[in-house]
Amino acid sequence: MGTALQDKVVIVTGGTSGIGEAVVRRFIQEGAKVGIIGRSKDKLDRLSEELGNSLLAVQGDVSQYEDNEKVVKATVEKFGKLDVFIANAGVFDGFAKFIDVEHESVSEAYDYLFNINVKGSFLGAKASVNELLKTKGSIIFTVSGASFYPDGGGVWYTASKHAQIGLLRQLAFELAPDVRVNAVAPGGTLTALSVIPPLQPYVKLIDNETKAKNIRKRNPLQIAMSSEDHVGAYVLLASDESRAITGEIISSDGGLSVRGL
Ligand code: NAD
After folding, report:
1. Of ligand 1's atoms, which has the minimum distance to the CA of residue 146?
2. Is 112 a catalytic site residue?
3. Average pLDDT value for the chain
4. Cα-Cα end-to-end distance for the chain
5. Which candidate, 33, 43, 44, places its Cα nearest to that of 11?
6. Labelling 211: which of 27, 186, 195, 205 has CA 20 to 30 A away?
7. Strands across the sheet containing 9-13
8. Ligand 1 atom 32, closest CA
9. Helix, strand, coil tally for the chain in percent (to 5)
10. Number of C-alpha atoms within 13 angstroms, CB side, residue 178?
11. In the predicted model, is pLDDT for residue 1 greater than 90?
């Protein structure tokens, strides 16, 4: 049990699985109180039971403003304030190839994926910003290696993760000096990140072992990353140790930028 986040109040979207869940567990160990928003009632109930009074679980959809507002209100009501909003919920395109996809599905997939990955980030920031101004808090986006490089997904995912960087940069500029805005960019990680329905017919599902092998091959440190590998970066950005850091993206990707030719 550490104290890096003692008395911090944090919201994590998509906090019921993968990277979000690992962040929630570690943040609570570091002394934080955490509100989460997720879609699955079963998973929300299971986590609430396990993590008790340090957790507040709200069912909702990040692409709806009202649901973002609901988790912010409920969190402030229960824990008294909000220090950090982590926009982490996301969905994937399964590396679907643009050329193979019918134009109707191109459009449908765009709306589906951008509504969650991009609009969800916009709406989370909007719903939390007034509370964050009161605490001089911060926003953290979960972006991706796909925010910088090709072949971290198909065009939908890659474009959505690039779009989050634009949101991050402009918001960090507009919200200074009061609210810091940063991101963590994980590389390929062994989670159950789901492929959106409109693209499922175009995607081959691969087993975890092949996935691990592919991820290891692509990054110089040759790590098949797990969710827990990234949580330290979130702890730093959420803590007072990073009070001079804004507009910054911490890559936690096994060294994609030093891949070479
Ligand atoms: P995950 O599927 O375990 O986590 C995503 C969470 O978001 C899930 O709990 C899901 O239910 C939730 N979610 C999806 N749509 C939602 C919606 N509309 N409303 C509310 N919640 C919603 O997968 P993960 O890999 O932990 O993904 C977390 C973040 O990490 C995503 O933003 C993803 O793009 C990013 N990321 C993942 C990887 C990877 O390789 N797994 C790499 C880089 C970045």
Report:
1. 43
2. no
3. 97
4. 42
5. 33
6. 27
7. 55-59, 33-38, 9-13, 84-87, 138-142, 180-186, 249-252
8. 90
9. 50, 15, 35
10. 10
11. no
Q: Which residue among 65, 110, 112, 157 is the active-site one?
A: 157
Residue nearest to atom 44 of ligand 1 (CA): 144
Distance CA 93, CA 95 (A): 6
ipTM: 0.99
Question: Which two tokens mark 49?
Answer: 């039971």
Amino acid at 14: G
Confidence category of residue 259, pLDDT binned at 50, 70, 90: confident
Token code pair at residue 32: 């934080």
List CB contacts of 139: < 8 A, sequence separation 6 or more. 84, 85, 86, 87, 124, 125, 128, 129, 132, 171, 175, 179, 180, 181, 182
Q: Which two tokens stand for residue 79?
A: 């824990």
In the chain, what percentage of residues exceed pLDDT 70?
100
Q: Which two tokens stand for residue 168?
A: 């991050």
In this prediction, residue 176 carries a pLDDT of 98
For residue 63 and ligand 1, the question of a CB distance below 6 A is answered with yes
Q: For ligand 1, is residue 160 a contact (CB within 6 Å)?
A: no
Contact 84, 140 (CB under 8 A): yes
Closest residue by Cα to residue 38 from 120, 110, 131, 114:
120
